[in-house]
């Protein structure tokens, strides 16, 4: 690790001493008798050994059981609290400084800031971030901040340990500890963040991105990797303490703790935070029918009539991309699907609904008769496409209609173009909902394939 010199010294017992080049101090890991269930893994990556573990300033304790970490954190890793401020009874702020210790992966951030606030009587938020540099944070445009005046101060719910830094969250009513990060050190480097917390119960639920045998989680050293839509890849480890460890490779640490006496109350608090979900239309819960390549609208209608004749209770009929002209978005085949503008009304007569597909890979070729493909032309004028690294040249790919460009939905120009095209198309082809298909692309140099 850059900046550190490692050296073995033989004493009556073998110790591994780490000399910190910057301060000339000798780092000696403190390794008290930590219960096995409370060991915090100091070597989550592969290839742990005694030498590699001690190079990180951690404790080495091999066992017969492989699930329990053999390399675990010493008690003198982490951060210390340099100062604490309380601008109001409901807000607490602290400045943290990293303790002199070896690094796991390098580029540790030396000074951090903590901001904690009671956002309501039943919601605590705390965020840990770089004190001097802005880092990526998941946009919270739909999540409200402190907008009420809780009846109790934050000190009734949260307390800070100074050395090493830790947070303890308790129930206000009976002081039961719910979330206690003092069991392990905070790690906060440029591309590796870790926070562990002892929990008040082993009744742990959630992490729905995986197939679980039971709703209640197994806490026997289970790790669940998670790749979320709007955050860095991360993982969650559960252990028998009971405890949880969060790991991620970027961003900040931003937590909400929701208090409730029942699971239902906790869900209610969660919905107060993020807003209530959209209630789906009743008909969308019914049976739905779709297939590729009906060939023509007359064949679609034949299918509908056949199912109506046997009283099959299905609510929704789809058409796949074969309704389009040469598989081009915002078009329809005016020969094989000439009556498509009236198809929704035909279904509505019997209480059924119509959903059509859009496949957002926009063809660069002309339309039938060598006429202009106006959706592509308008998108090009709007600079709506994903580009190469120069920020100008559209990235070309190969999808259903042939050579294509790809809408860049992170661009407001693209959003405006998409909304305009969709409104134009809806006026032409009436329908009840939209099926949008995404694609996985393999890109090499200037070429992408579907």
From TrEMBL:
Keywords: Disulfide bond, Glycoprotein, Glycosidase, Hydrolase, Membrane. It is found in: Endomembrane system. Coiled coil: none annotated. Its main location: membrane. The keyword Glycoprotein applies. The keyword Repeat does not apply. PROSITE patterns: P_TREFOIL_1, P_TREFOIL_2. Belongs to the glycosyl hydrolase 31 family. GO terms for cellular component: apical plasma membrane. SMART domains: PD. It comes from Sphaeramia orbicularis. GO terms for biological process: carbohydrate metabolic process. CDD domains: GH31_N, Trefoil. This is P-type domain-containing protein. One of its GO terms (molecular function) is carbohydrate binding. Gene3D superfamilies: Glycosidases, glycosyl hydrolase (family 31), Spasmolytic Protein, domain 1. Pfam families: Glyco_hydro_31_2nd (PF01055), Trefoil (PF00088). It comes from the Eukaryota. Residues 29-75 form the P-type domain.
